[in-house]
Specification:
The protein has helices spanning 15-19, 44-53; strands at residues 2-5, 24-26, 32-34, 59-62. It is α+β, with helices and mostly antiparallel strands and 63 residues long. The protein has a two-stranded antiparallel ribbon with strand order 1-4. Strands 2-3 form a two-stranded antiparallel ribbon. A hairpin with a 5-residue loop joins strand 2 (24-26) and strand 3 (32-34).
């Protein structure tokens, strides 16, 4: 599973960071960083939830 962000759509609301902080982080400039683009199995459920919860639908999951 791989997660991606569309930086043109992302508004850095940090919903994903709150749901899966091991995978997502915000920079000091409020840009989303994906720490683990190839999502480990133990984080898969939380990342799926984060992708569904993104208020701008800026995250994409390739399974």
């Amino acid at each position: 599973m791989r997660v991606r962000v569309d930086p043109l759509v992302c508004e850095a609301n940090a919903v994903c960071v709150g749901l899966a902080p091991e995978v997502f982080d915000l920079t000091d400039d409020d840009e989303l960083r994906i720490l683990l683009p190839d999502v480990p199995a133990e984080h898969a459920d939380r990342v799926r939830h984060a992708v569904r919860s993104c208020p701008k639908a800026a995250l994409t999951l390739d399974e």
